[in-house]
Specification:
Chloramphenicol Acetyltransferase; OB fold (Dihydrolipoamide Acetyltransferase, E2P); 9 helices; 7-stranded mixed sheet; 5-stranded antiparallel sheet; alpha+beta; Dihydrolipoamide Transferase; 23 strands
């Protein structure tokens, strides 16, 4: 029985994929769940498995083609009578057979974008809340072998069509290029970096559609480079434009004195790292308190639903992470139900998974509130864009020592941080935002921090 294999849907925000490399050809026999083709999307690289055992009849799309999710990609002759979960459902085309649940689940598991380094959505960089001496899960060393991958060898047979075309176009030797992809595989970024090194041109990019470095005359007669849009960059542009266009965003900020927290952390960070093998970082501490406060302020843990407001029973805290291609927000699900050690460990594992390319789609879906670290490069105030369709986003700024007037009217040097909140004014009012920030301020300034380690 012939069956049409479709490109599986892997999430609401993923609408299309690029066919990377076919692992089978017409006439090949495959078993159920055998990988058929490598597909790249704006969030993951994945292998599409065979939904049934049988023989490949036709390949319907070429390598390098961009295909919408749900479109046919191949035709398979199924062996005999096999269980089909949609057999009894009426369809307009009886030959169109969908993946069963297990096959679709497997299709949803992919390789996360390479070269991940963590920063906030507003473009901040590495380090812990603006302090270069802070051990932070947001920090990343581009020279870290765990980020680059352990394998140095390049298998030319595993090159993607785009990388092959670039290598042929510029007459490069792939063995001379350091691969940063999984198992040492070459990526487009690797080829671009190699070209820049050879040409002696830093900060250049290749326009593969025009066949070279695209030079554009500027208004002053100078030269500029055309930067090709990636699928993830295009998706981010559309997502941010929609957020600004649809959400009537308001903004507020509060100062928090972290002097006691800074002192406590300095005393305990070494022992915590030894005992739990994760950092006692400021993002972990403030993020955990944020989740706890949100559980008592459900208005901010909500989303606009046109004719209603959807309030979520659990806090799924998104953590902003930047990749070479653009912004990704991994999610700590049910963060409000975790103790601090569980939260810090989960945060550390998500960052490690992002660096090692082992995040799954579930790790970047379902967020109800976004937390980001814009102070990592010294920012003291930021106005983040609400992560649509969520109702609010919090940024932690740089910890700065400043002279302040104490309650006894004395002047003292204190460690001050600004917490900035953007919120959807359809869902939240200034009163809700103020209560949330005031509660978080009180918690961070007066909590018995030793109790969070118990």
């Amino acid at each position: 029985m012939p069956a049409i294999i479709q490109l599986p849907h892997v999430g609401e925000s993923v609408t299309e994929g690029v066919i990377g490399k076919w692992l089978v050809k017409p006439g090949d026999r495959v078993e159920k769940y055998d990988p058929l083709v490598e597909v790249s999307t704006d969030k993951v690289n994945m292998e599409v498995p065979a939904p049934f055992s049988g023989v490949i009849l036709r390949i319907l799309v070429e390598e390098g083609d961009t295909i919408e999710m749900g479109k046919p990609i191949a035709e398979l002759e199924i062996d005999g009578a096999q269980d089909n979960p949609v057999e009894d459902e009426a369809t307009e085309n009886e030959e169109e057979i969908h993946f069963d649940r297990e096959a679709e689940r497997r299709a949803r598991v992919g390789e996360f974008l390479e070269e991940v380094r963590s920063v906030g959505p507003t473009g901040s960089g590495e380090g812990g809340l603006g302090r270069p001496d802070v051990d932070s899960v947001f920090a990343d060393d581009p020279n870290d072998p765990s980020v680059q991958g352990e394998a140095d060898s390049i298998n030319s047979e595993r090159l993607s069509p785009l990388v092959k075309r670039m290598i042929e176009q510029y007459q490069l030797n792939p063995e001379e290029i350091q691969g940063s992809g999984r198992d040492g595989r070459l990526t487009k970024s690797d080829v671009l970096a190699h070209l820049e090194f050879k040409e002696g041109r830093s900060n250049s990019r290749t326009d593969t559609s025009s066949g070279g470095f695209a030079e554009i005359k500027g208004e002053n007669g100078g030269q500029s480079d055309r930067i090709e849009l990636t699928s993830i960059r295009r998706t981010i542009a559309e997502h941010m434009s929609k957020a600004v266009r649809d959400i009537p965003s308001a903004w507020t900020m509060i100062e928090v004195d972290l002097s006691e927290l800074v002192s406590w952390r300095n005393q305990h960070k070494h022992d915590f790292k030894v005992q739990h093998s994760v950092n006692l970082s400021y993002p972990a501490i403030i993020g955990w308190f944020t989740a706890k406060i949100l559980s008592g302020n459900p208005t901010l843990n909500s989303s606009w639903a046109v004719d209603s407001i959807k309030q979520f029973s659990s806090v799924n805290l998104g953590i902003a992470v930047s990749t070479e291609s653009g912004l990704i927000v991994p999610v700590i699900h049910r963060a409000d139900e975790m103790n601090f050690t569980e939260f810090a460990t989960k945060l550390d594992s998500l960052v490690s998974a992002a660096r090692n390319g082992t995040l799954e789609l579930n790790d970047v879906q379902g967020g109800t509130f976004t937390f980001n670290n814009t102070g990592a490069l010294g920012s003291i105030i930021s106005v983040p864009i609400v992560n649509h369709p969520q109702a609010a986003i919090l940024t932690t700024e740089a910890i700065v020592k400043r002279p302040v007037v104490t309650e006894s009217d004395a002047i003292a040097i204190r460690s001050i941080i600004n917490l900035c909140l953007s919120f959807d004014h359809r869902v939240c009012d200034g009163h809700d935002a103020g209560i949330f920030l005031s509660s978080l301020k009180k918690m961070l300034e007066h909590h018995d921090f030793s109790s969070i380690l118990n």
